[in-house]
Amino acid sequence: MLKLSLMKRHAVLLAILIGAFSLVLTNSAFNLLLPYFVQYYQISTTAGGWIIALYMLAMTLTMPLASLIVDRLGRKQTYMLGISIYGLFSVAGALFYHSIEVMLLVRFMHGVAAGLMIPLSLVLLFDVYGPEVRGRITGAWGLLLMLAPAAGPTLGGFIIQYGRLEMLFWINVPLAIFSLIGCGRVIQTYIPARRKKWHPTSVMLLICAVGALSLGVQLYASPVVAVWVPWMLIALGVLLLIRFVQTENGRKEPLIRYQLLRRNAVFPLTVLISTIQDCVMFGVIFALPLLFQDVFHLSPALSGALFIPLSICTSLFMWIGGSLMDRGRSMHFIAWGTLLVSISILSFAVLPLGASIWIIGMLMACRGIGVGLSGMSISAIGLQALPDEDMHEGSVLSTTIERLASSFAVMGLTLYYDMRWQWLAGAGKSMEMAKWGALKEICIGLGCAILLTLPLVLLITRKKVGIIVRDGKQAPV
Question: 332-372 pLDDT, tens per residue?
């Protein structure tokens, strides 16, 4: 009986991870294909960029509404709805990929599916697995979701070079069907809470606020849009968001339970740490390719290859970090991981221009080790600090905050980089040295930002046990 129960739990793990893995895999494959889309559809680079941007826009719009949908349908049905949308629109993309309008629609709906699936995937696994193994489950979840971005560009390039574009959609269909059947058969069905009421005013305020903020960030880098337009959209988004919070303050069951940030001492700290980690991660993704190609003059292929040790080490040490977390003896490995991430990023600011490719690869691997030990472990501690019935609310809230904050962080870094290197060039430095100087400062800023989270990490991990919630009270694992 015990063996049967264990097999069923592992079947849940497989069904959920296959759905999430294929979604992330496909999206990362698309990120490499912007030049191909520009040539295939005979469109501008700006128009082609929307094939990439619509996915992120739709995901950011959907995430805040996920808690309302879960309240109506339940966690299982909401996740299966996401898989169904993903599978159906993959079929549509495979059949009608020659139309740019269909391609844009498919990418938008894939983003909707991601907004439903990504926040719920880890929560559904926590429903099945107890606190004693949740660290390893978080590690397995993070391992696959880190391998997908590493494998996706390779898959996309292979398919475009040796196959046809529709194959990138057809490959999703059997994976979506397998995940859908698996989730339907092995995940336990819970009666939806139905605590939330549908308030059209709140829903429209939230959609318009998040939409305006996201669209403003996406249009910021567009050369065909007037400079004032993105800033106007961002300002409008902030005003609508303030109005949304004012409206929701008077409701018994708000659309997004941001009160979770006030009710629990551990959860808001983990959200703050994870948000800074996300901002730094996307900032590094912005800065390092520029450093490798514009300063160190590495080819795009070699620059991409340098991210392989990062992905491998991140995946491996997520599993190791999860195993250490389950032992419950000490959480100090999270602090060591945080410190390693900071040191590896700061090291890029002191590299000489003729640095060996092996040194760069070693720094990427060190950063991967640090991210693997610290990133997912912090998220797992935050979710476990909430009651089971609030986990999906907490996941949606933290993911939405992290996504919006990282978008603004990248926008700010882009603005700083363009202004700073041009100022340095105007001061008499060569273009290469001006860019090198600006990127050095960005690396120092990102490394210090991670370092600032270290006291918060130590505050959470000062006890040698994990923290979960039993009967509404915090208790040691």
Answer: 888 899 999 999 999 999 888 778 889 998 999 999 899 88
* Single-letter residue type at 305: A
325 assigned to some structural domain: yes
Q: Which two tokens stand for residue 328?
A: 């419950």
Specify the pLDDT at position 465. 41
> Is residue 257 a part of any domain in this protein?
no
Q: Residue 395 to residues 121, 122, 383, 386, 407: CA-CA distances in angstroms? A: 10, 9, 7, 10, 18
Say yes or no: 212 and 165 in one domain: no
Taking a C-beta distance cutoff of 8 angstroms, is the pair 97, 166 a contact?
A: yes
The residue ranges of DSSP E strands in 67-109, in sequence order, are none
pTM of the model: 0.75
Q: In whole angstroms, what is the distance from residue 426 CA to residue 440 CA?
A: 18
Cβ-proximal residues to 471 (8 Å cutoff; 6+ apart), any chain: none
Residue type, 322: G
Same domain membership, residue 273 and residue 207: no
Q: Tokens 């292979």 label which residue?
A: 158
Backbone angles phi and psi of 470, in degrees to 5: -125, 125
Domain that holds residue 242: 197-252
